[in-house]
Amino acid sequence: MPTWLKVLPEGVELAVLVQPRASRTRVVGEHDGMLKLQLAAPPVDGEANAALVEFLAKRLGLPRRQVTLVAGDAARRKRVFLEGVDAARVEAVMSQTS
User: Which Pfam families match (predicted)?
Assistant: First the structure.
């Protein structure tokens, strides 16, 4: 299991490193023990956080209400909780760089 994925009783938690204002939103891969994501959205007025939640929900086929930003609201290093999802599925889907 990768270091960026933590199994919790109700789901999983991701340790994410976000790079805002990228040319497109995509999974880059693992960086410094975290899952690195590039987001096209700028880090202004919560746009990057909203884009992160939207991207993860869509990529994993989850409703947005099951994706919660737990920590790192104003930082590049964030923790995101995914409710009711299997760790193996998250690892398989997020390990595919796009």
Answer: DUF167
